[in-house]
Design a protein that fits this description.
63% of the residues lie in helices and 0% in strands. The chain is mostly helical. It has a domain of 119 residues.
Length: 179
């Protein structure tokens, strides 16, 4: 390979090779890892885990406006239980009727539609828990401190409703597997 080069370049070839290789060397800057990031291990269809609600009462003054907003949000979540449960029964029946049916068949499509309706009916509870989280954040930032016992109780009850609905939805969705 060096035979075809003129004589002066043959002497410089090792030096040039070293210079080229030196350019490939790193500058000591850390290289980003190709390992999966923590966020990439969270399943898309599962909600983020709820932070545990502290049962320790926060001393402070009672804010009737925040307590009333928390009570309205909880009432909205509780009002959404009956429609969800009624649709859950229909979705379970449809999923059972579609067992063994091919994906795209009439029974399978009916079951998919019934399960999809459950997603819609979870909306009011999801909205209520988000509202309660916002209220809790607002209460935490108040000076003087606000008594958050009623807000925390409402948030705990709404989170329990949300968890029950999420578990029921996942169970019926898993039950519908195409043949």
């Amino acid at each position: 390979m060096l035979q075809g080069l003129p004589h002066p370049l043959r002497r410089l070839a090792p030096v040039l090779a070293c210079a080229v290789l030196a350019g490939c060397a790193g500058d000591g800057t850390p290289v980003p890892s190709l390992a999966p990031r923590p966020i990439e291990s969270i399943a898309i269809d599962e909600p983020a885990p709820a932070e545990p609600v502290s049962n320790t009462p926060v001393p402070g003054t009672i804010d009737p406006a925040l307590d009333e907003a928390a009570a309205r949000a909880l009432a909205s979540a509780e009002a959404a239980v009956a429609p969800f449960d009624a649709q859950l029964a229909r979705a379970r029946d449809a999923a059972n009727a579609a067992k063994g049916a091919a994906a795209g068949s009439e029974p399978w499509i009916v079951a998919q539609q019934a399960i999809s309706r459950l997603v819609e009916l979870r909306g009011p509870v999801d909205a209520a828990t988000a509202t309660l989280d916002r209220i809790r954040v607002e209460a935490a930032g108040r000076q003087p401190p606000v008594d958050t016992r009623r807000i925390d109780e409402a948030a705990t009850r709404a989170a329990a409703i949300q968890q029950r609905q999420n578990d029921a939805y996942r169970a019926v969705a898993r039950a519908l597997t195409p043949a």
